Amino acid sequence: CENFESGLGALSSIPLEGWIQLAAFIGAHEVLVKPREGGMGAYDLGFGTELLEGIRDEELERRQTVERNNGRLAMVAILGLMWQDGTFGKSPIA
């Protein structure tokens, strides 16, 4: 771990074998993981969506809106960290 950089520099620290493993795992996930039968939609892979069954439509919409907004906030946060690292060459993780 001593030879790995932090921030955007970590991408250049990954060896070729690591990139091959990442591509193989993502490809296998795309091919092998399918939506569950009787699920809420094509996005329902069975990762906790069963907790949403039996609730009112208003509550389901509220929970989905909260989850969507949290995802948007996380994307803005990581974009800010990447911009800081790319602009100033310093990662907040030293």
Task: For the structure shown, list the relevant keywords.
mainly alpha, 94 residues, flat
Question: How would you sum up this structure in a few lines?
Answer:
57% of the residues lie in helices and 0% in strands.
Describe this structure in words.
By secondary structure, the chain is mainly alpha-helical. The protein is built from 3 helices and no strands. The protein has helices at 9-13, 16-32, 57-88. The longest helix is centred in the last third of the chain and has 32 residues, at 57-88. The mean pLDDT is 84.
Q: What order do the helices and strands follow?
A: HHH
- Morphology: flat
Low-pLDDT stretches? none
Structural class: mainly alpha
- Indicate the multimeric state: single chain
Produce the secondary structure layout:
Elements: H1 9-13, H2 16-32, H3 57-88
